[in-house]
């Protein structure tokens, strides 16, 4: 029993400092984070960055701001550093706030807020410089597309930091692109996204947009309208008469063609169109119907993809119903 207590005490003796050390460490950490705080800064190249060193419960300790090379930018409200791009925004017992104008890539790094307490405290503000990409550029492999063909487009956003992301929209539908990120010699990123899809005739006239997302830019996009060629679709509409076609009446037919045909053409199958028929664009107008005009009237539309037609069978009835 006595031996057991002895072991227990030895055990405690060994453990004691081990238990204490982490407790002290945790307290030290919380003191630092409670008294001196700052924030990381993201800034677009050429714009202004603001670094704020804030002190809670200050006991009149001296505060200073150091650059990444640990040179003093501000010591209290005095600026030993010659760079006039650094300006004092606020100096109070709770805050040292400094602005840096016309930020360039070389200003990047870890800035240090330092408080002369015992022990001294430090807090770090990382300045990250953002460089916007150049205007996005869309390139299409095919200028004119055909229904059912696969086409390919690429969009490039050059020279940004960090890398931009590219999103594709066809009309109001998002399509998945394949991005490729390249790091250029000057440590900028160029992103190229490739989009491939099968064209349908509904895509004709629809815009494809390449939308660039980057923290330094807003609403950055380029777009291209699709031009799709497809075999025409033809439909004959009877404008007049609404009822039976009788001798002596007039007939008016309209040919509606979709798919950008080179033109529409009226013919009569195995016969000639009556000589007094008037054809204007897609309209066929025949006055004073005669039984001899009976037959099949055909509207034909064609383009480089193909040809299509629709038929109307004219059947001229006598003036008096049977
Ligand atoms: C400077 O800081 C003090 C204390 O936080 C605040 O009362 C004051 O409004 C600040 N001045 C400016 C110009 O921000
Ligand atoms: C901003 O800095 C660049 C170099 O980094 C310099 O060429 C340019 O003149 C500066 N612009 C202003 C307004 O100070
Ligand atoms: C497009 O599709 C047609 C057949 O529909 C084919 O003949 C042609 O080669 C295709 N063109 C391309 C560029 O794929
Ligand atoms: C119909 O046409 C024929 C020959 O083209 C002509 O002889 C006849 O008089 C016409 N009938 C009417 C009602 O116009
Ligand atoms: C035209 O159709 C009418 C309607 O039945 C018919 O009576 C007439 O004989 C037809 N005329 C010709 C030339 O086919």
Structural overview:
The chain is mainly β. 11% of the residues lie in helices and 47% in strands. The chain has one helix at residues 2-35, and strands spanning 36-37, 41-44, 49-55, 63-66, 72-75, 86-91, 95-100, 109-115, 121-130, 137-140, 145-146, 150-160, 165-170, 173-175, 178-183, 189-198, 207-213, 220-225, 228-229, 233-240, 251-258, 263-268, 278-280, 283-286, 295-302, 307-314. Strands 2-9-8-4-5 form a 5-stranded mixed sheet. It has a 4-stranded antiparallel sheet with strand order 1-3-7-6. The protein has a 4-stranded antiparallel sheet with strand order 10-12-16-15, with no helix packed on it. It is rod-shaped and about 115 Å long. Residues 1-34 have low confidence and may be disordered. The structure holds 2-acetamido-2-deoxy-beta-D-glucopyranose (5 copies).
Observed structural traits:
322 residues; four-stranded antiparallel sheet; 11% helix; binds 2-acetamido-2-deoxy-beta-D-glucopyranose; disulfide bond
Number of β-strand runs? 26
The order of strands across the largest sheet is 2-9-8-4-5
List of distinct ligands in this structure: 2-acetamido-2-deoxy-beta-D-glucopyranose
Q: Roughly how much helix do the residues carry, as a percent range?
A: 10-25%
* Beta-strand fraction estimate: over 45%
**SSE succession:** HEEEEEEEEEEEEEEEEEEEEEEEEEE
Shape: rod-shaped
Secondary structure tally, helices: 1
Multimerization status:
single chain
Low-confidence stretches: 1-34
Biggest pleated-sheet summary: 5 strands, mixed
**Rg result:** 40 Å
Determine the N-to-C terminus distance: 131 Å
Mean pLDDT: 87
Structural class, by secondary structure, is: mainly beta
Membrane topology: Single-pass membrane protein
Signal peptide: 1-20
InterPro entries: CD80_C2-set, Ig-like_dom, Ig-like_dom_sf, Ig-like_fold, Ig_sub, Ig_sub2, Ig_V-set
Subcellular location: Membrane
């Amino acid at each position: 029993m006595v031996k057991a207590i002895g072991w227990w005490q030895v055990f405690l003796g060994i453990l004691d400092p081990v238990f204490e050390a982490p407790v002290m460490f945790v307290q030290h950490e919380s003191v630092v984070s409670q008294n001196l705080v700052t924030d990381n800064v993201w800034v677009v190249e050429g714009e202004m960055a603001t670094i704020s060193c804030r002190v809670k419960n200050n006991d009149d300790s001296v505060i200073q701001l150091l650059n990444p090379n640990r040179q003093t930018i501000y010591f209290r409200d005095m600026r030993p550093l010659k760079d006039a791009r650094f300006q004092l925004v606020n100096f109070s017992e709770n805050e040292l706030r400094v602005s840096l104008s016309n930020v360039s890539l070389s200003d990047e790094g870890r800035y240090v807020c330092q408080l002369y307490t015992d022990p001294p405290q430090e807090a770090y503000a990382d300045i990250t410089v953002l460089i916007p990409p150049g205007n996005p550029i869309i390139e299409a492999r095919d200028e004119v597309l055909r229904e059912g063909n696969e086409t390919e487009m690429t969009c490039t956003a050059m020279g940004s930091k960090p890398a931009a992301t590219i999103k594709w929209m066809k009309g109001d539908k998002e399509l998945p692109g394949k991005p490729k990120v390249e790091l250029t010699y000057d440590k900028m990123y160029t992103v190229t996204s490739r989009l491939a899809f099968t064209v349908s005739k509904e895509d004709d006239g629809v815009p494809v947009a390449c939308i660039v997302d980057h923290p330094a830019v807003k609403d950055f996009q380029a777009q291209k309208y699709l031009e799709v060629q497809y075999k025409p679709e033809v439909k004959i509409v009877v404008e007049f008469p609404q009822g039976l076609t009788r001798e002596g009446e007039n007939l008016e037919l309209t040919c509606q063609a979709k798919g950008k045909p080179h033109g529409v053409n009226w013919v009569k199958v195995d016969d000639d169109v009556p000589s007094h028929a008037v054809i204007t664009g897609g309209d066929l107008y025949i006055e004073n119907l005669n039984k001899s005009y009976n037959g099949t009237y055909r509207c034909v539309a064609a383009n480089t993809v193909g040809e299509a037609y629709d038929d109307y069978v004219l059947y001229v009835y006598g003036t008096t119903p049977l």
